[in-house]
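Training component of the fellowship. As part of building independent skills, the fellow (R.M.) carried out the full modelling exercise for a liganded target. The chosen ligand was iron/sulfur cluster. The inputs are recorded below so that the supervisory panel can assess the work.
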Amino acid sequence: MKEISLYIHIPFCKQKCLYCDFPSYGGKEDMMGEYTKALVKELESLPLDKKIKTIFIGGGTPSYLTLENLKILKEAIKGINKDKDIEFTVEINPGTIDEEKLSLFKEMGVNRISIGLQAWQNNLLRELGRIHNLEEFLITYEMCRKFDFNNINIDAMFGLPNQSMKDWVETLENVVKLNPENISCYSLIIEEGTPFYNKYEKGTLILPDEDTEREMYSYCINFLEKNGYKQYEISNFAKVDKECRHNLVYWNLSEYIGIGVGAHSYIEGLRYRHTENISEYIEKVNKGNNINLDIYENTIKDEIEEFMFMGLRKREGISIEEFNKRFKRDIYEVYGEILNKYLQLGLLIEEDGYIFLSIKGIQVSNSIMCEFIL
Ligand code: SF4
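Fellow's submitted model of the complex:
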């Protein structure tokens, strides 16, 4: 039976962080019940001829959903055709989780928890508009361990307003001391339409300069590697065999189904994108109408480009053999000029049948990736 991954989007947050442009909303708690019912309907319509190998409940803040709604979701997930070796992740945020919810996640079969920390310093957390402080994060982390979750990811961010190198080092050192299985380190991106964007436009957002940000990233790679975390993707570091299998599905251009508001799917060369409006989603699911904003059939050109962009995010890079097999063309015939240019500059490396970004290449990965547009 064909295997596939499943993403479930929970669009509710207690409060919107000032940098966030995800499809997530604060102050819509009254819609949780109806939304969960709609999710269940969508779950029930999943193809039965596929086995689910990973589930990722993301958001928003899945742990903000009420216990009652989480129980409804749990019942619906029970009915899914799951692989016995499934990786099942739930994203949680400190300040929205308690022992009852964690116990329910255990019963649900969740075996991986991803916690949003972002920074170790309470002043930086406040500046980001996070709802929690460090103490609440520590309580959350300990609670997860107490419930025997032995695969935990912690999200951290660098390049934050007023964040110094010292702050970042302190964040990394303390996160490593906690000994999570995976650490994700994202650089802050100022997204249009966010309060941070407006502040940035007005010149009132004080960000670390480019050199400091680059230093923060290099430090992070070296420090985490030294402490037993292997970088397996531009922003992700894990202990041996603890890489996030669900996220690897995206980077390997494998198939996945996304359900809920704003969710994306990629099945048999088609890309689907759901509406981002919660009321519209609920109404359309209930009426049995199409909830997709668009359905797009990837051309061969799209597939090749996506294979390169996504594959080069991984530290192992892309397999030359897989490219040639998948597209029935030699990679050097398609990208020879660009590959040779970056291989000579030392920004790309070819080794054992794989092409990947060098450490220097990772620092300028965005401009390298652009060149793979055909
Ligand atoms: S908790 Fe996450 S999804 Fe919610 S607003 Fe903050 S960053 Fe966005």
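The panel noted the following from the submitted structure. The mean pLDDT is 96. Residues 98 and 174 are 23 Å apart (CA to CA).
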